[in-house]
Structure formats: structure tokens, C-alpha cells
Amino acid sequence: MGTWDELFFLQIRGGKLMVASAHKSDAGVYVCVATNVVGERNSEPAELVVFERPAFGKRPQNQVVLVEGMAEFACEVMGDPQPAARWRKEEGEMPLGR
């Protein structure tokens, strides 16, 4: 069985580097290094950026309030780039003036 690096990085003949199942920790600048008996040379750097889909840290919970009472729904969103949180009523538009 290979090492962790061998399982997630695959170098193919011709110098191609493939990153399988990219993680945030894979983000960074990569350089191809050519080496032979007369020396070594580096390619120009290439940057890998790894984004994350939006996810929820906190989700809204059901509320029961009296008329004129206040309901508060907490929602925490995460991702990269940081997503914006917005609200909509499931059956359509938010109530006018609210």
C-alpha cells in the first residue's frame, strides 16, 4: 500500500501531476522540476485554488410564538469563498413590510 501522498497525488509520465479528491490543504503554488545529469530547472509556478460549496454551521429551528411575540431564526453559513445568507419564505415572497 502506498503512502498518503501517493494515494491522493498521481504523477503520470510526461510530468503531469493530478490531484485526486482535492482538499483545502492541497491549495498552494506548485512547480515542476526538470532534472538531468547536467542540471536542474524549475517551471513557472502554478497556483491551485480549492473552493468549498456552501454549508450550514447552524440551521434554523422550528419556532412557536404568541401573536405579537418575536421569533428568531439562527442561520450560519460557511464555505470558500464565504457565501452570503439570505432568507425567503418557502411558499413565496417574504410578507410585505416585514
UniProtKB/TrEMBL annotation:
The keyword Protein biosynthesis does not apply. The keyword Repeat applies. Residues 54-93 form the Immunoglobulin I-set domain. SUPFAM superfamilies: Immunoglobulin (SSF48726). Gene3D superfamilies: Immunoglobulins (2.60.40.10). Keywords: Disulfide bond, Immunoglobulin domain, Repeat. InterPro entries: Ig-like_dom_sf, Ig-like_fold, Ig_I-set, Neural/epithelial_adhesion. It comes from the Eukaryota. This is Roundabout homolog 2-like. It comes from Geospiza fortis. The gene is LOC115949460.
